[in-house]
Amino acid sequence: GFLPSRRKARRGSAAGPPEGARRAAARDGGGTGAATPLRAPGVGELRAECVRPPGRRVGARAVAHALRPEAGTTGPLGQAFPRRVGQASAPVAPSRQRPPFCPFAALDQQPRAPGVELPPKGRGVDLGVAVILQSSDQTVLLTRRTSTLNISPNLWVPPGGHVEPDEELLDGGLRELWEESGLQLPQGQFSWVPLGLWESAYPPKLSWGLPKYHHIVLYLLVISQESQQQLQARIQPNAGEVSAFMWLGPDIAAAVAATEDGTETPKHLPQDLPSSVPTVELKENGGAQPLALPTSTLLRTTPGTADSRERVSTGTKFALTLWLQHLGRKSRDGS
User: Fold this and answer.
1) Which ranges of the chain would DSSP assign to H, the alpha helix?
2) Whole-number pLDDT of residue 154
3) Nearest Cα to 175, choosing from 265, 166, 148, 151?
4) How far apart are CA 215 and CA 130, in angstroms?
5) Residue 107 sits in a domain of what CATH number?
6) Which residue range(s) make up the domain with 52?
7) Quick check: is 266 in a domain?
8) Is residue 139 part of a domain?
9) From CA 146, how far away is CA 164, in angstroms rounded?
10) 117-147 pLDDT, tens per residue?
11) Which cofactors does this protein require (predicted)?
């Protein structure tokens, strides 16, 4: 997750998941072989497009190391993400969005007390990556952050966290997936595509207090050839960060994504939604137990004052919307 201290305990070994699991990636649409690094020629454009108060430093070391800009390239942000790895033609521009109540935007519209640093002096804007893991039967994995975390406790999010120096974006996403869920995807049995960029702050609203952390998060859709049942059989959640997990299908995901935070009038929700969603909750003794989580919990929006009640993060709703759009395009294309 997005923790104040980036270095987390590794699962199994200090070196992280096996090299084959970290580097292997099939092309979007099928195929096998070693991953071609995801590169972003327009790093300067990425920084320019990010919405931020004047004078804020965007990118930090993570952007420079992870995106690895090519010398002399000045293409727009959309050209930084080819539709398929190694295929520079037919670029697809990832969506870029921030919540309507972004505290940095609110601060930019009002006077600030002298000497206030946002976030803590010298931190800048960190780069994160989050994985929307899709099973072969079209469900996606969400995890609930533990109640003891300092940032965003009890939020439902996909596995993700900071990108480390000299780490490719896909590698960072696969590492975070492994560290938080214990899942390693077999080489040649998954494909992937970038979904979108999200500007995130914590606390998420100015009414909660001044923001202390600022991230640009890249959501990656990783499509496994394994079913939900096959993947779940191998899940070993990291109890230090994850307290529960679930698999969402398109219907529930659409309802969750429709509960847009910051809007005065909620969208119309289907009347035939189930009253609960099957969930697996971790017990204090290290075991796990099934839990019927009320669907209403997933439909909560961000409250006006500081509140650690269980809900789905606003950025996750954005990512679920993009995932559903991706499914719709695949359906129309007949693939």
Assistant:
1) 19-23, 43-49, 60-67, 103-108, 169-181, 228-232, 250-258, 295-298, 314-333
2) 96
3) 166
4) 12
5) 3.90.79.10
6) 35-86+94-113+122-333
7) yes
8) yes
9) 23
10) 666 565 678 899 999 999 999 999 999 999 9
11) Mg(2+); Mn(2+)
